Structures are given as structure tokens and as C-alpha cells.
């Protein structure tokens, strides 16, 4: 399992895991052999606050989604906290295995690797890597062929909608890129209200 940063356009090509404990945790990923179709299955507590309303609304309409991200803006304190978690987990990963939960299916597994180490030597290198994605938010979904969502165009500043393929699947891609965390959440709220 890999803890390195992944940009939202690559989310559908990964299996997503988090340590099976309470509270927020850093995500780990493994490659998918083939891109998964969108689904209605998600551990809602793992969703970013900014996109949870939109994802919930889409699922309520019967429209499946792929893994999403609101577009984080990591502050240094949050970076230290997120960097400390896999550091604390390293001993378990190398010795007895770390209990993990699959974000989409809820399946449990153990991550065991006797030579595992963090890719980042310092919290600052982690912060620099994680910050490359600041403000890159994405929700991708796949409505039925004749659904009105294919024509949906919310008039929201810093938001764009494109139609692309994710693997063999046609998708509506909603991207939000603003200039700060408060603006990012406000954009996602406006996109959700426009649906």
C-alpha cells in the first residue's frame, strides 16, 4: 500500500484504504488493474466535507460516483498531524500488520511490509508534496445516457464541468479550483445548491 499523494484525475485508478480506527487518517492506495465503474458504495465518514453534500445528492438521485476530493489546502499544523499518523503506524506495518479498511467496500485487510518506510524524510517534504494538490477538487459521476445531468452547467465561479471518459466509462467531471480553503468550500456549496 502506498501513502504518496495522488491527484484527483487518478483516483479512479486506485483502490483506497484507511487505517481502521476512529478519527481522520491519511489514505493509502493500491493500483487497480482496470478502472472500476462508479458506485453508490462509499464510507461517507471518509468523504471530504466540501463534496459530501454533492455526492450524497447524486447518490440520492441514483447517480453513481467515483472517489472524489474537495481540493485540500493543507496548513502546516494539519500537515504535521497527517505526517505523524503514518510515522506512528510504521511499527505496526513492519511487525504485525496494520488493520485497514477499504473506503468503497468496507472490506478489512492487514497491511504488512517488514521493510516499509515513509517516502518523505521530513514533515516539510510531506507538506510540500501534499500541497501540490492545493485547491484541485474533483467529483466525477456517470448519469444514465438520457439523464438531464449531461446538460447541467452550474454558473459557479471557479467551477468547471467537462465530459470525459474514465477508462471505458463516460463521465461528468466537476472541478473546483479556488484560491483558498474558505472559497473552495463555498464553491462546492454553490455547485451542490445548483443541482
Descriptive report:
Helix 1 (49-60) packs parallel to helix 4 (181-194) and helix 2 packs across helix 3. The protein folds into 2 domains: 1-34 and 74-133, no CATH class; 37-73 and 134-195, no CATH class. The protein has 4 helices and 7 strands. It is α+β, with helices and mostly antiparallel strands. The protein is 28% helix and 21% strand. It has helices at residues 49-60, 76-95, 123-131, 181-194, and strands spanning 14-19, 28-31, 98-102, 108-111, 137-141, 159-166, 169-176.
Number of domains: 2
Which term fits the overall shape? globular
Number of helices: 4
Q: How many strands, which pairing sense, and closed or not: the largest β-sheet?
A: 4 strands, antiparallel
The amount of beta strand, in percent, is 15-25%
N- and C-termini, Cα separation: 36 Å
Instruction: Please tell me the overall pLDDT.
Output: 88
Q: Structural class of the secondary elements? A: alpha+beta
Oligomer: single chain
How is the secondary structure organized here?
Blueprint: E1 14-19, E2 28-31, H1 49-60, H2 76-95, E3 98-102, E4 108-111, H3 123-131, E5 137-141, E6 159-166, E7 169-176, H4 181-194
Antiparallel strand pairs: 1-2, 1-3, 3-4, 5-7, 6-7
Helix pairs in contact: 1-4, 2-3
Amino acid at each position: 500500500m502506498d501513502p504518496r499523494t495522488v491527484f484527483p484525475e487518478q483516483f479512479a485508478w486506485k483502490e483506497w484504504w484507511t487505517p481502521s480506527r476512529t478519527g481522520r487518517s491519511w489514505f493509502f492506495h493500491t493500483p487497480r488493474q482496470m478502472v472500476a465503474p462508479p458506485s453508490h458504495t462509499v464510507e461517507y465518514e471518509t468523504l471530504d466535507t466540501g463534496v459530501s453534500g454533492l455526492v450524497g445528492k447524486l447518490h440520492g438521485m441514483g447517480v453513481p460516483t467515483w472517489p472524489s476530493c474537495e481540493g485540500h489546502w493543507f496548513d502546516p499544523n494539519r500537515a504535521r498531524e497527517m505526517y505523524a499518523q503514518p510515522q506512528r503506524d510504521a511499527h505496526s506495518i513492519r511487525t504485525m500488520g496494520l488493520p485497514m479498511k477499504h473506503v468503497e467496500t468496507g472490506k478489512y485487510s492487514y497491511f504488512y511490509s517488514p521493510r516499509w518506510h515513509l517516502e518523505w524524510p521530513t514533515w516539510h517534504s510531506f507538506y510540500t508534496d501534499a500541497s501540490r494538490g492545493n485547491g484541485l477538487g474533483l467529483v466525477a459521476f456517470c448519469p444514465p445516457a438520457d439523464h438531464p445531468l449531461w446538460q447541467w452547467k452550474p454558473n459557479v465561479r471557479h467551477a468547471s464541468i467537462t465530459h470525459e471518459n474514465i477508462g471505458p466509462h463516460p463521465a461528468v467531471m466537476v472541478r473546483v479550483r479556488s484560491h483558498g480553503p474558505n472559497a473552495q468550500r463555498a464553491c462546492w456549496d454553490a455547485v451542490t445548491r445548483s443541482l
